[in-house]
Amino acid sequence: MEFLKRHAALLVLGVIIAVGSFNLGFNSGENSPSTTVAGIENQTEGKPVDVDFAPFWKAWNLIDEKYVSASTTAQKVDNQERVWGAIQGLTVSLGDPYTVFFPPVESALFESDIRGNFEGVGMEVVAKDGAIIVIAPLKDSPASRAGIMAGDRIVKINNKDTANLSTEKAVQIIRGPKGTSVALTIIRNGAKEPLDIKVVREVINIPTLSTRELPGGVFVIELYSFSAQSPNFFRAALREFILSDSDKLLLDLRGNPGGYLEAAIDMASWFLPPSKVVVREDFGPSREEKVYRSKGYDIFNEALKFVILVDRGSASASEILAGALAEHGRAILVGDKTFGKGSVQELVDITSETSLKITIARWLTPNGLSISQDGIEPQFLVKYSTADREAGRDPQLQKAVEILTQ
Question: Catalytic site residue 248?
Answer without folding.
Answer: no
